[in-house]
Amino acid sequence: MLNKERPRRGLMLILSGPSGAGKTVLSRQLLSEYKDMELSISATTRAPRPGEVDGKHYYFLDEAKFRQMAENDEFLEWAEVFGAFYGTPRAAVEKALEEGRDVLFDIDWQGAQQLKQAAASDLVKVFILPPSLEELEARLRKRDQDSNGVIEERMNRARDEISHWGEYHYVIVNEDVDQSMNDLRAILAAERRLRKRQPWLNDFVRNLIQPF
User: Based on the structure, what is the number of domains in the chain?
Assistant: First the structure.
């Protein structure tokens, strides 16, 4: 009888999609349900906001330290956004994968492209689509957080983001959160069982086929 706790290599699960598609809700449910999954913590040079804790929300670095890490190839991906640097530290992610834990990324298509260049074999990329642009706009307005101008800007950005859907392994139209979660569970179940993520299989099969 097979041991159900056989070691496996973790995976990097990317959720991308326009603001309002539902990535945050799905991410929270995944992290609540899967105890062997953790959210990737980015490093940044921006100042902490009220309530943010170093090592929990971000790794807060000065610019000199960030640049040094970038030069030493210590980031899987990094970018400058509105005058501050953001990056994904390589060591923490690789440690999690080796220990059989999955790492969740809520990033845009540009970050996904950089991660593909750095760690393509570990990636599972899922794009979250809204049922329609009308529904997307309604969701943004329901938040009651942004002005009409900001919402219009977000809608324009959404069209650009959606145009990159074909770069992903899986696409989910998030019309119903429960169904979308079922889809994500199915994706995870299959991806976790890929042969390349089962390092114990080589020795197991070798023992099966060796002559008596």
Answer: 1
The domain spanning residue 43 has which CATH number? Answer: 3.40.50.300
Domain with 115, as residue range(s), is 12-206
Tell me the pLDDT band of 5, cut-offs 50, 70 and 90: low
Q: Is residue 55 part of a domain?
A: yes
Strand partners, 58: 54
Residues, the chain: 212
Contact 41/104 with Cβ under 8 angstroms? no
| Whole-angstrom distance, CA of residue 92 vs CA of residue 53 | 17
What's the one-letter identity of residue 87? G
Alpha-carbon span 171 to 169, nearest angstrom:
7
Residue 197 · residue 16 · CB < 8 Å: no
pLDDT in tens, 35-53: 999 999 999 999 999 999 9
- C-alpha radius of gyration, the chain, whole number: 19
Q: Find, among 17, 18, 184, the residue nearest to 102 by Cα.
A: 184
Q: Is residue 212 part of a domain?
A: no
